[in-house]
Design a protein that fits this description.
The protein is of the alpha/beta class. The chain is built from eight helices and 15 strands. It has two domains: 125 residues, 3-Layer(aba) Sandwich (Rossmann fold), CATH 3.40.50; 141 residues, Dihydroxyacetone kinase, domain 2 (Hypothetical Protein Tm841, Chain: A,domain 3, 2-Layer Sandwich). Helix 2 packs across helix 3, helix 4 packs antiparallel against helix 5 and helix 6 packs across helix 7.
């Protein structure tokens, strides 16, 4: 049975209160824009290419928790599982524009696509130049032939990390766009759900799943996956996921990758480590070198049980920006 208990005040005030909590946790490094669900760094250098990320709340630490050093400059925060409005996006765009334009990075969902596009048109009317990278890393959500229909899931982290590094040192919006688009195109993810998440306002589950079944390829909001199967041992499950992931890019012998084992909201670190163990075994057998491994909660769905696996294929350019130290509430990285 779905657990509807939540440590909340008024369920209608979830997003404003979580935004206040983010601001408090950053101790003055970020600020909330007046009157809208938006966060930015408290100060930005002139001529910096702005990096604006955003989407529906409820996936924390994505997106607001990824503002920081060599990460994003601001976040447009929608309601739970809903895209931010064009007005919110425009306000953040204005705040981040330091003369060299603003790059938008967000997950590939219809509401986000529409609202960010409208905001970009509004920004253009104010002579603010923007570019857009939609993350579509979920291999289970569409075929390779329909790559641009795929959803954005935990691979957002790798794309934002590379974009954050590039936007910190490159002064040309088009150059930052090109690097970020490359990171997106070299990233693939697949997830599996074991139990449903919930919607804070109602306490209702995001989908129904029998206790003895799993759904491979389940989306962050409960969108259908590619198959529903009986529960499998961890190794057999990881084998299925890695096979589909590796074949998609494809990843090949000699490739060097960053690996993310992401908790969807209620999976224990123990389970992530067991999945990571098998992932390393398989990739080592394939001759795919793991440059870095990240484990934890980065792209979640309100206590959904399950995990996702993401891989980004590296080259020297991507490695340069990935290696830049990062410091944000949701993700930190020391220099190598």
């Amino acid at each position: 049975m779905q657990n509807s208990k939540k440590v909340l005040n008024d369920r209608k005030n979830v997003v404003p209160e979580l935004i206040d909590g983010l601001v408090a946790a950053y101790h003055g490094y970020i600020k909330k824009l007046d009157g809208v669900g938006a966060l930015t760094k408290s100060s930005l250098p002139w001529n910096k290419v702005g990096l604006l990320i955003g989407g529906g709340s409820g996936h924390e630490p994505l997106f607001g928790g990824f503002i920081g050093e060599n990460m994003a400059d601001g976040s447009a925060c929608g309601q739970i599982f809903a895209a931010p409005s064009p007005d919110i996006i425009l306000e953040v765009t204005r705040a981040l524009d330091q003369g060299n334009g603003v790059l938008y990075v967000y997950g590939n969902y219809a509401g986000d696509n529409m609202n960010f596009d409208i905001a970009a048109e509004m920004a253009a009317e104010e002579n603010i130049v923007t570019r857009t990278v939609r993350v579509w890393d979920d291999v289970a959500s569409a075929t390779q032939a329909k790559m641009q229909d795929r959803r954005g899931i935990a691979g957002d982290l790798f794309v934002i990390k590379v974009a954050g590094g590039a936007s910190a040192v490159l002064k040309d919006l088009e150059a930052v766009y090109q690097v970020t688009a490359k990171a997106r195109d070299k990233t693939r993810s697949i997830g599996v759900a074991v139990a449903a998440g919930s919607i804070p306002e109602t306490g209702e589950p995001t989908f129904e799943l029998p206790d003895d079944e799993i759904e491979i390829g389940m989306g962050l909001h409960g969108e259908p996956g590619v198959s529903r199967e009986k529960m499998l041992p961890a190794d057999a499950l990881v084998d299925k996921m890695i096979t589909q992931l590796v074949e998609d890019l494809p990843f090949q012998q000699g490739d060097e990758v960053c690996l993310l084992i992401n908790d969807l909201g209620a999976t224990t670190y123990m389970e992530l480590l067991i999945a990571n163990r098998r992932t390393h075994e398989i990739l080592n057998e394939m001759g795919i070198r793991i440059y870095d491994t990240i484990l934890g909660s980065y792209c979640t769905c309100q206590e959904m049980s399950g995990f996702s696996i993401s891989m980004m294929k590296l080259d020297e350019e991507l490695k340069t920006y990935y290696n830049m130290p990062a410091d944000s509430l949701g993700f930190t990285k020391a220099a190598p």
